[in-house]
Structure formats: C-alpha cells, structure tokens
Write a structure and sequence with these properties.
- It is built from 8 helices and 5 strands, in the order E-H-E-H-H-E-H-H-E-H-H-E-H.
- It is of the alpha/beta class and about 220 residues long.
- The protein has one domain: 3-Layer(aba) Sandwich (Rossmann fold).
- A 5-stranded parallel β-sheet has the order 2-3-1-4-5, with helices on both faces.
- Helix 1 packs across helix 8 (about 195-220), helix 2 runs antiparallel to helix 3 and helix 4 runs antiparallel to helix 5.
- The radius of gyration is 17 Å and the shape is globular.
Length: about 220
C-alpha cells in the first residue's frame, strides 16, 4: 500500500540522517525561509507530535530504560500512527505543507538496518501505521556517524538511549539510509559535512521544486 501524498493539496517532506547530522537545524532554517516566502508549513517530528506520541518519545529516548528491538519497533509505530492521523494527514488535506523530522525511513534504517529486524514484517507494520502515506520528498543529511557524535560532544549534552548505541550500530544505520536512497526516487541526498549555507540552499531548491509541482497539479 503506497500513497505518495496523493490527492493532498499540501506537500509532505521528511528529513532523515544519523545522529548529529543536523536535521533539527536544517529543518528550522528551511521553515523560516519558507515562511518568509509566504508558504504555509507545519513542523512535526518522530517520535513525537501529538501528546500521546510525545509521551512515547520520552520512553524511547530514556537512557535508563532497556527496551527490546521488537518493543522499540512497536513504540515507534504507535507514535507514528498517532502523528499521521492527528497531525500530518489533516494538515496535508488542508493544503499545509508538512515537514517532519524522521518518518518511516528512520524505522527502516534503525530497526531493519541497525537492529536487524526482518524487512517485510517491519514494512508491513509500518504501512499499517501510516495508512500507506509516503513522503513526496525525503531529504537525507548524510554524514559519517563519528563526525555526528563529535558534533554532539561539542554541544555538551547527555546522550539519549539511541545515541548510546555502539558506533557499529550507527554505521549500519547510515549504510541502510544510503541503500534506501539508491532505490527511492523521492530521496535527495545532501552532504551534511558541507557549509551550512550551501546545504540550506540545496534543500530549499529541492523543496520548492516539489511544492511547485504539487501546486501545478492542483491547477490542472
């Protein structure tokens, strides 16, 4: 089941990448730029979004909790189902463009690539949680995980449960992201080691192209 924002007036854009790649920063810059251009946009994140999903987020990222891979998967999907039904779909239907930090591809990268869970059951479960909703554009901020963690260390904050995983786990996650990008035309890969202003320009150009195409479809 696949529904690439079909029939929605708004465009659905997601950001993906390893820890420390700069997803939140690049999202904020993009949203500010779009809003200055008079473009309606809603920002959400995963895990998170509506109140129930935010509570699940606190469980998933708690470094003091031990969570099995299958339990972790189900918690992520529960959070996503709520976010899609209560936040993302209603916004898209109203014509608002949605920008989401992480989405289904994070599950494929972290739970399939990182944890080694079987691909087909995970994809089937994710499709159930999302109702088949797939982004119009996925921006992958690609970065060596070691550089990502060096950035986090410079920020001086404590690591969450996922960030505490061994570097080999995060290398598998990055590898899976790059494999997904090879197979999915909706991916736009950005070298997250480049200067921030270059990244922001490339990201906005790709997003504006998607929004323009969606607007042209609506005019026909």
């Amino acid at each position: 089941m696949k529904d690439i924002s079909a029939g929605f007036r708004g465009s659905f854009i997601t950001f993906e990448g390893v820890e420390g790649a700069g997803k939140s920063t690049r999202c904020r810059e993009l949203i500010s730029s779009l809003e200055r251009s008079g473009i309606s946009v809603l920002h959400t994140r995963e895990p998170g979004g509506p109140p129930a999903s935010e509570r699940i987020r606190s469980l998933l990222l708690d470094p003091e909790l031990s969570i099995s891979p299958l339990t972790e998967l189900m918690l992520y999907l529960a959070s996503r189902a709520s976010n899609v039904n209560l936040v993302i779909r209603p916004a898209l239907e109203s014509g608002t463009n949605v920008i989401c930090e992480r989405y289904s591809d994070a599950t494929f990268a972290y739970q399939i690539g990182g944890r080694g869970l079987p691909e087909k059951p995970v994809r089937d479960a994710d499709s159930l949680a999302t109702g088949g909703l797939v982004p119009d554009l996925t921006i992958l901020l690609d970065l060596d995980p070691e550089e990502g963690f060096a950035r986090l260390q410079r920020q001086g904050r404590e690591k969450d449960r996922i960030e505490l995983e061994e570097i080999s786990f995060h290398r598998r996650v990055r590898h899976m992201y790059l494999e997904l990008a090879k197979k999915e035309a909706r991916y736009f890969v950005v070298d997250a080691s480049r200067e921030a202003d270059i990244q922001d320009r490339l990201i906005k150009e790709s997003v504006m192209s998607i929004i323009s195409d969606k607007n042209n479809e609506g005019d026909r």
